[in-house]
Amino acid sequence: MDKILEKVKEYWKMIVLVVCGLIAGGIFYVLTNGQKPTTNLSVENLSSVSRQSSVSKFSEPNEKSVSKIMVDLKGAVTKPNVYQISSDERLVDLIKEAGGFTDQADQKSINLSAKLKDEEVIYVPKIGENSSTENTDSSANSVTSQVSTTTEKININQADLTELQKLTGVGQKKAQDIIDFRTKNGDFKSLEDLGKVSGFGDKTLEKLKDELCFE
After folding, report:
1. I want to staple 91 with a disulfide (CB 3.0 to 4.6 A). Which of 50, 114, 169, 199 is the partner?
2. Cα–Cα distance, 138 to 121 (Å, whole number)
């Protein structure tokens, strides 16, 4: 036992250094390895948030940019047609896509900066064209749209079942009622005669007065 104590006294400094080294090494290991996962996880989270933020910032504008509308362009342009364009484009963009104006186009009556709407009909008039056949679209500020004034009327005394169903508010049953009444009572002489058919009240007759003829 005395020999052991003598040995301990002889090497006590070395033992203390070894013990201190082990303690220091353990502390260093815990600090370095214990914090790395947290640091790496934080960086990964920031990277993920950054990517999500980028997608969020740019996805909405991209969706808006691909929104399309259909516009029917007629009149004095090189290529009259129905065009599919972006909703944020103006009339000047549509005219360019159609190849520009013809030599006869009345460009003074057109507002090239006008916004366009889905299903809109744009009519570019010719120089000296009768303005009574044009309808100015107030929302487009002087953009003119042609309105047809020569709609073909249906002869109620000659039209068959299919033709009669082209009339506003007239289905197969009402069309057959017209034919049955005509067969039984003879030709219709006026709009008032049509009012004698079941289902044709004053409101319906008002809608049909510009669609019918009785010759």
Report:
1. 114
2. 13
